[in-house]
Amino acid sequence: MQKRALILVAAALVTSSMPGAQTMDRAAVLREVGIAHGMLRGLQYTDAVTTSQFQATGMQYIVGQSFKPGGPWPAAKLTKYNVWINYAVPGMRIDLERTNPERSNPGSPVQGGGGLPFAAPQRQILVVGGTRAWNETMLPGGPATPAIGQEKDRAAQIWMLPQGVVKAARMAGEKLVVGMEGNKLTLTFPLPEPASSYTEKVRLDERKLVEHVEVMVDNPVLGPALLEADYDNYKDPDLSDIPFPFHIVQKFRGSPILDITLTGARMYNPYVVVPTPDNVEQAYAANAADPQSKVEMQKAGPGVWFITGASHNSLAVEFKDYVALIESPVGENRAAPLFDAVKKQFPNKKIRYVINTHHHFDHAGGLRHVVAEGTTILTYRDNQPYYEKVLASKGARPSVEAVGEQRVLTDGTQRLELYKIRGSNHADTMLIAYLPREKLLVEADLWNPPAQPNAPPPGGVALAEPLNLWANIQRLKLDVAQIAPIHGRIVPFSDFRRAVGQNSTN
Ligand SMILES: [Zn+2]
Ligand SMILES: [Zn+2]
Q: Which of 43, 265, 310, 359 is deepest in the core (most CB within 10 A)?
């Protein structure tokens, strides 16, 4: 009975053009969907759900860290995925632990980036509270690191969960659009702050439970990209008549990023609070400059500048007629100040090339800016079709030149050599750069010099990529005196030799 009535209401709504009828039907639909999700109680149909909590295990797939461009996101196994939600704050805390994935052939390597393969189980605590985001390392209220810029995507996660959908749809007021897809009801609405630039589209199943959610989110490399969630196996976990899905799958740009099975859930937990740590509040309140905007130039040779200041370094190389820049990483927030600084350093020369070490999103995140500047991207050949597709936009057609096994830029004095790395399990598109005059090697992610000079060398799985880099340097017969890494400080080559256990001179 109820179901048929709802479909009639929705059908009337779709065909109705009367604003008054729209408002009434919107309210009726929201009430039915709220009842279906066990939220509306008492004579006044008050929303009784203020918190949720669930525990799960499953798989996580790391966005932007595929082994090959356009390939599936690499897998990590979630041994713990505990989530607390407080819809009133609104806030969410995810406490996860992940390990390397199990493989059918244990001898086969784990391929891709994002810290894979893990040397040890890795714990992450990701929090959003109101318009603030931060990471924790221990218990709630413990030391916190501000995660400025993450608040939008983390808040969206709250409103993608079933009860969150109902609340956000109600908050949208007259901006909620009710529709039909086949015989299924759909809800489309903008999300609350700080995710208000996102629009969510939801499909309900025949019981009026949320079964599919879509949000177009922003991505530094892909531009707008589709984030989807699918819910099934609804249960009543604590006999409160509040149904919650025990199987959750999320996809990003069509490829899975999360696939979890719940082991338990509670729809009411008075202890779910998300206080914003003082240092996080201060960091936001200070309206401090984005740490990615800090650019420092360090001379590394005639016309050669090592550019640091944030998480990813770059290297500018001056030629007679132009400047080549190695790496435009992270996103627009890094690329814009980086380009400004390089232009200031070389006011009379054009940045003709940006060399991209590999396709991982943290290293390719500034390439949309490169395209907007009209600068040509030099990258390994397998990235060319991928970048031409994903970096294209209405305003700009990317100029991408493919590099094969090697490429040399020279004006007779300055010389920059690019080589394809063989045998890496981190990325299948990896280029290194070599400046013969300075005997300087530039590499990304293959070996990160330790922050402390006397730190013990890497062992186990962490040694595989450094050893492979060593083998490539031998194969290419490069005479290296120092390494300028994309992560970390310039170090003498002897530091690397020690790390890979090659103390004798080659
Ligand atoms: Zn990488
Ligand atoms: Zn990296």
A: 359
Which string of b and e fits 186-216 if b means at least 16 CB within 10 Å?
bbbbbbbebbeebbbbbbbeeebbbbbbbbe
CA–CA separation, 120 and 458 (whole Å): 12
- Cα–ligand 1 centroid distance for 81 (angstroms): 25
DSSP string, 46-107: EE---EEEEEEEEEEE-TT--SSTT-PPPEEEEEEEEEEEETTTTEEEEEEEEEPPP-SSTT
191 Cα: distance to centroid of ligand 2 (angstroms): 32
Q: How far is the CA of 362 from the centre of ligand 2 (A)?
A: 6
- Per residue in 252-303, pLDDT (tens digit) is 999 999 999 999 999 988 777 778 999 999 989 887 778 899 999 999 999 9
Which ligand is located closest to the Cα atom of residue 448?
2
- Asked whether the beta carbons of 221 and 364 are under 8 A apart, the reply is yes
The residue whose two tokens read 């406490």 is: 95
CA of 65 to the centre of ligand 1 (A): 6
Give the model confidence (pLDDT) of 182-221 as tens digits.
Answer: 999 999 999 999 999 999 999 999 999 999 999 999 999 9
| CATH top class, domain 291-499 | alpha beta
d(CA 210, CA 231): 7
- Is residue 171 classed exposed, middle or buried when 0-12, 13-18 and 19+ CB atoms within 10 A define those classes? middle
CA of 444 to the centre of ligand 2 (A): 6
Q: Dihedral, CA atoms, 214, 218, 221, 224, nearest 10 degrees?
A: 60
3-state secondary structure of 280: helix
* Position 143, amino acid: P
Looking at the CA of 329, which ligand is closest? 2
Ligand sitting nearest the alpha carbon of 358: 1
Give me ligand 1 centre to Cα 198, in Å: 28
Distance 18 CA to ligand 2 centre (A): 55
CA 478 / ligand 2 centre spacing (Å): 23
Helix (H) or strand (E) holding 406: strand 406-410
For the chain, the structural domain boundaries read 2-285, 291-499
Q: Is 467 helix (H, G, I), strand (E, B) or coil?
A: helix
Vertex 253, ends 250 and 256: CA angle to 5°?
A: 35
Distance, CA 113 to ligand 1 centroid (Å)? 5
Q: State the CATH architecture for 2-285.
A: Clam (2.50)
Distance 370 CA to ligand 2 centre (A): 19
